[in-house]
Design brief:
Shape: globular
CATH class of one domain: Mainly Beta
Strand order of the largest sheet: 7-14-8-11-12-13-15
Distance between the termini: 38 Å
Radius of gyration: 22 Å
Helix content: under 10%
Number of helices: 1
CATH topology of one domain: SH3 type barrels
Number of strands: 15
Structural class: mainly beta
Length: 262
Amino acid sequence: MTFLDDPQLDKQAKPHKPLIAPKHSTGGRNNLGRVTQRFRGSGNKQRMRIIDFKRNKPDVEGKIEGIEYDPNRSARIALICYMDGERRYILAPLGLNVGDIVMAGEDAPVRLGNFLPLRNIPLGTEIHNIELNPGHGGQLARTAGVFAQVLAKEGKYAQLRLPSGEIRMVLLECSATVGKVGNTEHENVDIGKAGRNRWLGKRPHTRGTVMNPCDHPHGGGEGKSNSGRPPCSPWGVQAKGYRTRNKRKLSSKYIVKRRKQK
């Protein structure tokens, strides 16, 4: 079992009380009490941190007070104290330190942690927390260690290479945060034991091949057998080998290159 030793992380810090909210654990059940997502449940009690994805406080400088752990995401979060005394959480970019100054708005300089429109960001810049609609808040590139890159600007659109490899057009009026999301070593963490997954709310995942034929299409047979069919769910939906994106989706016209283009 491995853990990350982040020297910037304040392990003794308690979350800012006005910016936390209760989080109800569903256990994978819907409003009727039926299991709609299997293998979820238990886990340590968690509280939501209210993250400012919109950064709708333009032209006001804020100072980084601390880098904290968030149990609801792989990235670290940074607590900002603005000049007027208001505090907000943002995703902590790689290289952002306590005491740094960040800002949002059209007049913000192209500097680590600043949030500004794509038309003001130079080509080749690494960005994250990217909006899809102006003013709606960042939706793309928000997990630990990822970033998108500005490839080109044409007309009213910018072409971005997303972490998946997809090249997509986004309006120049949409904003993004400069830099790469921190906690880049998150993918190298070794869970190490089953109990640690239980802390995270993940229950044991039973393989279909060890079930009976009445419970799963992979079940039955003598010894280890895959029943001679491709991987699928208990209800027969294939798990590999076909595209699941709706061909009639309106946003498909903004995709220049798919992430898995043959």
